[in-house]
Amino acid sequence: MPSFDITSEVDMVALRNAVEGANRKITGRYDFKGSDARVEQSEKLLTLHGDTEFQLDQMQAILLPEMTGKKIDVRCLKHGDVQKVSGNKVKQELTVRVGIEQEQSKKIVKLIKDSKLKVQASIQGEAVRVTGAKRDLLQECIALVRKEITDYPLQYGNFRD
User: Fold this and answer.
1) Which CDD domains match (predicted)?
2) Contact indicator for 70, 17 with CB cutoff of 8 Å
3) Which of 23, 66, 121, 129 could pair with 109 in a Cys bridge, judged by C-beta atoms 3.0 to 4.6 Å apart?
4) Taking residues 17-21, what's their average pLDDT?
5) Domain CATH for 155
6) Per-residue pLDDT, 31
């Protein structure tokens, strides 16, 4: 039976390169001179440090195009609240979402089942596996999910005949 997997992955090496490129641009900008503005990365967490909320917005305006340039979908970021740190400093945490969360998986499976396509969808950990009798049905399923799920970055891979 032909099958494929729906996943949500982020290239961590490309993400690290994007963060380093953003930090280079931030240190080179005139309006950030003398400030402690920087982006830190620890595994799947990015922390933006700045003097004001406006600086955090400017840093995001630098970071997001860097990520897009490295072929990282910015929809994988979950923006946290802006927190006040010692003195007048602020920070914001951006969580990198890797893998499909359980509620999102259930939403995808329900969408596929409600579509009345002759395919079966099952949750396999942080991925959704879709199997069907014909390759054309699987391609219709991919088109359907692509059209309906727009708020979450999904990849369609491991296509088997």
Assistant:
1) YajQ_like (cd11740)
2) yes
3) 121
4) 94
5) 3.30.70.860
6) 86
Give the domain range for residue 42.
Answer: 12-96
Cβ contact 92:47 at 8 Å:
yes
pLDDT tops 90 at residue 33: no
> Does residue 68 share a domain with residue 132?
no
Specify the pTM. 0.81
pLDDT at 88: 84
